[in-house]
Write a structure and sequence with these properties.
Length: 306
Amino acid sequence: MRIVELPEILDALDEEAALAAVEDGFRRLHRGSVQLAEVAHLNFEAPPGDCHVKGGYIAGDDVFVFKFATSFYRNPEQGLSSSNGCMIVVSAKTGEQLAMLKDQGVLTDTRTAMAGAIAARAIARPGSKVLGIVGTGIQAKMQGEMVARLLGLGEILVYGRSADKATALADELGGEAVDLAELCARADLIVTTTPSTSPVLTADLIRSGTRIVAVGADTPGKQELETALTAKARLIVDSAVQCAHHGEAGWPIRAGLVAPDALVELGALLENPVPFTDDDIVVADLTGVAVQDIAIAKTVWERLKY
């Protein structure tokens, strides 16, 4: 098995190819041509963190992929990244483990940002100009950069619990640090990127027509959006099964406020766009699906194996 370190992975990562592969992966998932293994989760309290293992296979591929990822949220206090992990590329013909991509969590973070941008592009209201970022970590920065660039959003607002961190990120993104109420009042599209277990965005803060991409609720118990908010929104999900289990969509479903069959998968929306009104609140609930890991790992491996 080939061991591939991060510098070589970054040299082989083609953003345009990976973005197209991730979007195609969502489409293939909707068509039923993807096998996904059941997600394994571990949650930690002291220090706070989580671990998840995801894997799957796209029909007809020469390889399948399993990903091991961790997030420990106090790591930056020790000068460490909050993200870590690796991806294993396996032959779908022999079962041979071909490569371990020791990406240190970078591929997971990148494919998450790509999914956010893909979802944002699918739900954004025409004429949107202002992007709001809730959170100040790795994903906040990556979503802010990628979503703004791919959608051509010229104004970026940042909110974080730490005013100093929000200001620092806003400076990096060329944006403005604001309080949460101002962000919700001004932003056309909001991306939430926190590991919160209690709602950050509440129904009373969100005006009609707002589009929200929520990427924080990737393990059981997390919740960035108030149930009253998701209950009245149109819900787009990366995986109906996953989101009903541990995503934002699961909260109104368990409360009996939303029927499971009301969820629209992102792959279905990409295949068959549905109209949204200017007044619709639309939430894209992204829990992270293994097809994203397969897609980005494959694009890297295809360039490495020659």
